[in-house]
Each structure stands twice: as structure tokens, then as C-alpha cells.
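Feature request disguised as a bug: please show the residue count (659) next to Xylanolytic transcriptional activator regulatory domain-containing protein in the output. Example input:
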Amino acid sequence: MLTSALSPMTPTYSLPLYIKRLPARFGPDDVLYLEKKGALTIPAAPLRDELLRCYAEFVHPYMPLLNMHELVRTIDRSDGTDPISLLLFQAIMFAGIATVDMRYLKAAGYNSRRDARREYFQKTRLLYDFDIEVDRISLIQSLLLMTYWYETPDDQKDSHHWMGIAVSLSHTIGLHRNPAKSQSMDPAKQRLWKRMWWSTYMRDRLVALGMRRPTRIKDADFDVPMLSLEDFEEDVLSDEPSCMPADCTYLRDAEKQRKLAVMCIAKVKLCMCISNVLSVQYSVLHNNHGIAGEEGITRTTMMLVKKLDPELTEVQACDKQLQEWKEALEDEAKYVEPTWQDVDSGNEDVVLNRSLLHMIYYAALSALHRPQVLPSTAMPPRETQAPQLEASRKAVRLAASGITSIASALYNLDLVRYLPTTGITTLLPAIIIHLLDIKAPEEATRKASLQGFCQCMQIMARLRDIYAAADYSTAFLEAAIRKAEITLPQRSAELKEPRSVITSAQALMEAGRRLTSGRQSSSSALTPPPETRAKPNETGNNGGVEGPSQLTDDDLARQLSSYLASTPPDSDHQPSISQHEGGGGGPQFSFESSGGISIPVADFEPDFDSMINLDEAGETWLLEDGAYAAMQGGESSGYLMDTDWMMKGIKEGGLEMSV
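Example output, currently without the count:
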């Protein structure tokens, strides 16, 4: 309740008819407070409509929580019939801001995208805290959208927090049970409940993968059948005037809806593979137990860390499951190199969702095999046969190359700006592998890894405009480079010169320029490692994907140094390449797998995902410049725990270090 000082004032708010009325229990003071905080303010029609379009095209397809057609028709009617939850509506507006064109936000008075996202999340959270909504379906839908918020590492209510509440509420209403067994639920509601449950499941797995936190949903605790195409909406909007802009083809194209539904089902099945990867390779560790950080905030203690002795037969089974998932993909979900024609024809949503699906696949492949590559810093290394290590090295390099290639294709088409926070989750393991391979003995691998690192950092720069997590990830990487003191292998002409220690991204890029100084300055195409190049008969649709626009090493050094040191400008959402024909100059990486990777069973001790603070080793590695903060929250923060092995790997020879 408010203080009496505000009581004499009378609320002046008015909600549109398509929004549900505030509960009668709310007094004038409560209403006035919400009004003063902007929680009752609905965006003007131009911004509202664009946010709805962005939500429909770039959020709903991979998390189909709502009956989108019903929501649009409710807004169009605006007659008070079946009104929308205010909490849910503000959550939808918040989710849409990440991808809306910046000119709409500036017209509404916002100086940056982050400011707009922060304001709309605060509106949503305030409404949640006021218990304005009692319908648990609307609450679950809103909470799942709230998991996309992360701003500061010391926020006690992070993605994992909101995920936990959403799962808890789901269990209280029986969302985890087969809706077909209900005697009172009509078919339309059954379909919605199935989509909501599997959306909750997918979000839980991706948050766990990125944050290295335990999953909230246990596989044995639900019996909801797998999604099918029949569970998705079969509807199209008419050509009549609508709040949904005319250029939104998704809700008006039944075939596009079917394609995206196929991809969504494939993503659910992939998240089931991810669940197995996490259970096989990681266990819960209570780290930093009872330790308080700055301002007395107790640090997170529950994290997923590398198991000391995983069953290699289980690793084999997970690898086989991932390969079978990829081989079983329907044509609509198989990766196809996107083109400007896809963008010009209004298929950005199809391109984005297909690309993100495969980036998540490679992130899962990396998470499975990374622990096999380097020895534990907490345990003495054991004998490992070369073929076993080589299989995992190829797998993580394949994953890094695949992520980089797909993301680079999105970058060329100016579609990176549509990636959700999961994009950061997938980029980080690729960047880390590239950093390790910069120290590789083979010159081709070093060159390819340096180029891949630069590509990924350019892409991360675009995401900094939208997500604070990208800033913290960047701070971590800069600190990691500084702390690792990288020294690259010298060319024969430089053997008489003393080796210089690399302690910054700028120095790293300058070293890369020296390694590749024999090339013509007009070309920056680098050869990928041999195991990641496609064979002559394996190109086609899954062949090489062009990287970001062609730059010399000096250009990359200047851009990366400037990027790491500055706050990103607001994106104007202009294409990265000025003309469609200009996209052919970047380096190409072919990443199509030739089949499943067979992992021979042997007795060896890997630990690729050790924690930054190893209680069992008695070590604490402190990052400068606040980079430690990057490891305390956010959907991608778990990858930033991979520091001790990264330092050891870079200093001792990258992925090729002997164990």
C-alpha cells in the first residue's frame, strides 16, 4: 500500500477494452502507484502493433505459449470480450522490444533499446509483484517471458528464479500431466496446455545449459506426449484491417506456420537430448557456500560442474542421440544457407528459427565433448589414448566452426539483431574454442581460429545493443585474454626474436596479423582446420557459410579493440552489407558432419568445465574490471565458469595439449 501522502490524489488511468480490468480489491493508492510507475500505460498503436508483430514472428514460433490469432482478434474487436491479462500483455510488449526497429522506440521517447527493455520489464515485474493476475495460465505465460530478462549479476531474481516459479505453478495446475486424460478439457485447451508445457520444458533446458544451473523439470515427473503438428494453431488472419501489421506474413501464411511448427517440434526433441547431456556430464556442486559478495549479497552456490568420472558409454549414447536427431530432421528443419532472397521475401523468421535450432545443436555437441578434451585442474591427469581425445577435439572444433558459420550468415543478412539471449549461450563456447585453438601448433588452425574469434566478437558486438549479458561476456573474455598471457608459436623467421606475451585483445589481433602477414592485404579469407572442412561431395545446402564482411587483420584489430573498450551504439538495423551482392567476400567455413562421432571407451579424466572457484583445489582466480560479475547471472553465465581449463589450455598448447 502507498503512504497517505498519495491518498488524496485520484487515479486517472484508463485501460483499453481488450485489457482485463484491475481487481476490485485494488484501492486508489495501489492504482495510483501503478499508474505513476507506468505499469498501466499501454503503448500507442504504432509501437504496440510493431511489438506484436515482432513477438509473433521472433518469439512465438520457438515458444508457442499463446493462441496468437485469438489474441490479435481480441485486440481488433476491442469490445471487452475475452480481455487479455494486463500482466501478460506487458510481458508480450517487453519480449517484442528486443527485435523491434529502433525508430519506433525513438519515436516513443526511448534513447536506447536497453532503456526500453528495462522499463517494460519493470512494468511487468511490478504487476507481478502486486499480484494483479490470479489466473495461473496467464502467470505461467508471463513468467516464461520474464526469463528473458537479465541486467546485473547481483540480481537475486534472475532467469533461473523466474523459471523456478513458472515450473512450480505449472505443477500446481497439472500442466505436467497428459491433458488428453482430462474429462473436462476441450481439444483447443488441450493443445494449448501441451504447447505451454513443452515451451516450459524447452526454456528450462536452455536456461540450465547456459547458466550451468540444475534443471527444474525432471524427466520422470511428467507424462505429456510429444508435440505434433495438430497441437499448433491452424488459422490465418484475414486481409481486414488489424493491429497486426500487413507485413507480418507469419499469421497470414498457413505453410509458414507449418514450417515453424516443424522446427519447434525439432527443438523440443533437441532439448530432450540436452537433458541427457547435462545429466551425463554434469553434477551439482555447492560452490562459494556462505560467501557474500559486494554489498553483502550471498553468491550463488548451486551450479552444474563436470563429473569427475562420467561413464564413457553414456557419452557415446548421448553423441549417438544427437547425431540421430540431426539425421532424422524433416526437410523444413534441415539447415540451408540463407540468402538475401529469403530476407526480401519476408522469411526472416524462418531463417532465424532454423539457424538458431542448429546453433543450439552445436552448443549441445560442444557441451557433451568439451569435458573430454582437457584434464582436470583439481585431479592429476591419467593416461588417455590419442584416438579418444582426437574424436572429442574434432567434435568441439566442428561445433565451434558450425556456430560461427551459421551466426556469420545471420550477420551478413543483418539478422543477428533478431537472436534471443540463447544466441549468446551458443556463441560463447565457440569463442572459447577459438581462443584455445589460437595456440594450436598448426598454422592453418591458428589462422582459422583467429578469424573465427573475430567473427564471433563482431556478432557479439551486435548483441550488446540488446542484452546486458553480452557486455558481461565481453568483459570476461577480455579479462581471460589478459590473464592467460598468450604466446603464439613463432614462424621460422622470428625464432631469434624474444616471444612477446599477449595480454589484450588488441595484442592478440596484432599477433594474428604477424602470423598471416604473407597474405595479400586485400584478402582475409582463412582456411578452417582440416577436420571442419567439407569434402568435395559434401557441400550443397549444408556447405560453407560466408562470414562477416571482408576485413584485413589491421581492420579487425582496430574494430575489436574499439568494441571491447566502448559501449555499443544503438543499432539502426541497417544491413551489415550495403548491397546484396556484397556478401560474398567473407571467409567460408564448411561444417556439415559426415556422420556420428564414435567415442571409444577408455579410462581418462577430463574436466573441461571446472568452476572458476575450485574449492577442492583450494584455488580462486580473480578477474579484474568486474569480469567476475559475468559469472553470477544471466542465461549464458555458465560458460563463463570454464576459466581454469581455458587458462591452462591456452598456456599449455590449446586443444592439442597432452594429457
